[in-house]
Target: TonB-dependent receptor
Amino acid sequence: MKKIFIIWILFGFMGTAYSQTVTITEQGTNEPIELVTLANIKTNLYATTNVKGQADISAFRDVERIEIRSLGYKTIVKSYVELESEGFSVTLETTNLNLEEVVISGSRWRQSSDDVPSKIISISAKDVALQNPQTAADLLGISGEVFIQKSQQGGGSPMIRGFATSRLLYSVDGVRMNTAIFRSGNLQNVINLDPFAIENTEVLFGPGSVIYGSDAIGGVMSFQTLTPQFSLSEKPFISGKATARYASANNEKTGHFDVNLGFKKWAFVTSISSWDYDNLRQGSHGPEDYIKDYYVQRQDSTDVVITQDDKLLQIPSAYSQINMMQKIRFQPNENWDFQYGFHFSETSPYGRYDRHNRVRNGTARYAEWSYGPQIWMMNNLNINYMANNRVFDQMSLRLAHQWFEESRIDRNFNKSERNTQSEEVGAYSVNLDFMKATGERNTLFYGAEYVLNDVDSDGELTDITTGISKVGPARYPQSKWQSMAAYVTDEFKVADNFTLSAGARYNLVLLDSEFDTTFYPFPFSEAKLNNGALTGSIGGVYRPSDTWVISANLGSAFRAPNVDDVGKVFDSEPGNVVVPNPDLKPEYAYNADLGFAKVFGNIVKLDVTGYYTHLKDAMVRRDYTLNGQDSIMYQGEMSQVQAIQNAAVAHVYGVQAGVEVKLPQGFGFSTDVNFQKGEEELDNGDTSPSRHASPFFGVSRLNYNANKLSMELNVNFQAKRDFDDLPEEEKDKTEIYALDENGNPYAPSWHTLNFKALYRLTDTFDISGGIENLTDQRYRPYSSGLSGAGRNFILALTAHF
Model:
């Protein structure tokens, strides 16, 4: 601690001695509002309030227009002189009817949504506190605009606009999270993130390849973790929170603690969270097909099928997880800002529940099928520099190293050989981004990116009776995947109410893989891909008035083949085995968006966006041959050979719509609905519904906010999907769907009624919780292998300091 204070004193004389603090509170409660943005877009000045609702606005001195915005509050505009005359104290009125907010995901820089033609939504920490999502996947789901698929409790695979998995991009503190083994099947990596340590989440809908590169076809999910906050006075600034939570459906026991220590020029944030989940209990009322009332247990060297005492428990689905984060921030003066972040996440091993539903010869097919510990670590150094030169006004340099580790363990029923496949990925990235105002109405965003993924994959076969292990087949070849890119985007304000944006990116992707032919006689031993991709976008935002916004956007995106596409070997379902294909090329998406939003009488807000996406050279799984054979023996079963191929043209179209109504006495009502329809061509020329185009879904909410109490009654719902409307590759998965009167799988419609509440007991303590699935429905989201929670009682206590 002495060293910290010495460094603090040494740098204390750097920078300006003038400071001015503004305090922002909520109208009616006088509670401080955290994460309010104060901005002057023209001069690229921004400030953000801390947990006490305070921000240093000394840089805004003499500024005529300061926009004060926060999600869930009415935007106001003040000059510095006005703030000074009002004693630098501001109150904000709660409302959800704003048509603009400050967003980051559009360009990786802070922008007004007035200037971004793409649809972007934000999920605030305030929403998270009320809803109490158990994982980051559940956090995305509370938006009502991201569909979440689950094959096990330790998972959650987002679907956006008919796309999912490796056709969506994840960004954490501006760093690409996607790796070269992100698969086209359902992904669980989002659960690595800690909902307690995220201060804001944004979802950009539609192509994002100009800024984010490969994979950003259907959308971008951008997570901003807690930012260290400085002291605004001579005293150290200390703040934080501690939370304990329990949920009944899976006997959840969660604990979280974070603390911020801020000085004038140094600030630190430490966060740690721990979760423990028992097997998830599904609801009492619903399809009997979702009930698996047994599990497999090893007894006296024999696998035994055990009948469950409680048939509604989904065994095995229990798991635990721990997350840690440490961030350090140093700001020697108003021009430089250094931030270092360390993130670590590790799960326990957890069963893949849908695989335990598979049967063979009238009994369980697997005695074991689980994922090993899923580990993610990231070191991230972010350097921001503000200048006023000919090249840039602001520069951001991000250096990141990530480490991913995952494994799959399976053993057939009453077989002694356990198969373990382990993967490790070292991911290195450099992003250099610039922003330059080239006039009063024009701003350039440009930059370069380099990404390297080093993939190591191993297999091991263990005889559980003798304990002897030997080398087994690996899932992937040993590989290096590289991406190099440069981009530029121009934002031009044609008029005060009309902004045009256009951008382009060139991306070069290299892949070098070496195959082990010991276990599978591939007719090749290596794959080398060199693919260039050019993508672009053009769009505009027009505001006829303060209550009316129209936006349109045309954009292209791409996904380059990664190691999972080119080189994996796995069984997709019984009787099929996927083998490598070294001849893949990128797939391209072409998208059009048209949206409008309108506020009527400061009471009703209507928001509608329509979109169409055409996917060319789509990488899909199709029948294939290996050494002239269309079938091979795989794990003791003769299996049809398949491979990922550029074999299809696909298209998705749909509508996202929302309505919000401000009611008297603190009440409000809102609904978000999503309709999408996707089709892809088959080998015979026919078409099939796209696997990741979810059925019609949405959420309706009735809210109440007054003084220290917030409450919400909501209904989540999904429409039915009949057997004839299922994708061809889903029609054989009887283990995850209900069966219709003809014995064919289908996805029934469902809805859940949920109640949430949060009450501020004192300035220090909050109590929150509620009841999910009040009517105890047994339901399963489309394409999921795990049913949702039955009636679930949640209670959380949070202490703020």
Summary: The chain has two domains: 2-94, 120-800.
